[in-house]
Amino acid sequence: MGLHMVSTVFAFLVTTIVLLAFKTTRWMGAVALFVLLSVSPVLASLLLVLAAVVAYVLLDRPSLEVLSKKLPWRK
Q1: What pLDDT, on the 0 to 100 scale, is given for residue 60?
Q2: pLDDT tens per residue, range 26-67
Q3: DSSP assignment of the chain, as one string?
Q4: In sequence order, what are the residues at sequence separation of 6 or more whose Cβ sits closer than 8 angstroms to the Cβ of residue 35?
Q5: Letter string b/e over residues 32-62, b meaning 16 or more CB atoms within 10 A of that residue's CB
Q6: Is the dihedral of CA 40, 46, 48, 51 positive or negative?
Q7: Considering its fold, how many domains does the chain have in total?
Q8: Which residues form the domain of 58?
Q9: Residue 10 in domain
Q10: pTM over 0.70
């Protein structure tokens, strides 16, 4: 797999993430995710995991205490 394929899959991944970010384009993001995983499953999976780790680190993580108070069976 050459550098051209890696850059193509990376660009497609960025496009997929942007499409999934908005409610009106989410269906296109789901289709793009399917195509991305069909074209290059190993590389796409690695890039998706990397993007998830970066998003987890950069975005605010909710505390477990706040989440536990929102559970329906907790009063």
Answers
A1: 67
A2: 899 888 888 888 888 887 788 778 877 877 777 766 555 665
A3: --HHHHHHHHHHHHHHHHHHHSGGGHHHHHHHHHHHHHH-HHHHHHHHHHHHHHHHHHSPPPPHHHHHHTSTT--
A4: 12
A5: bbeebeeebeebbeebbeeeeeeeeeeeeee
A6: negative
A7: 1
A8: 3-68
A9: yes
A10: no
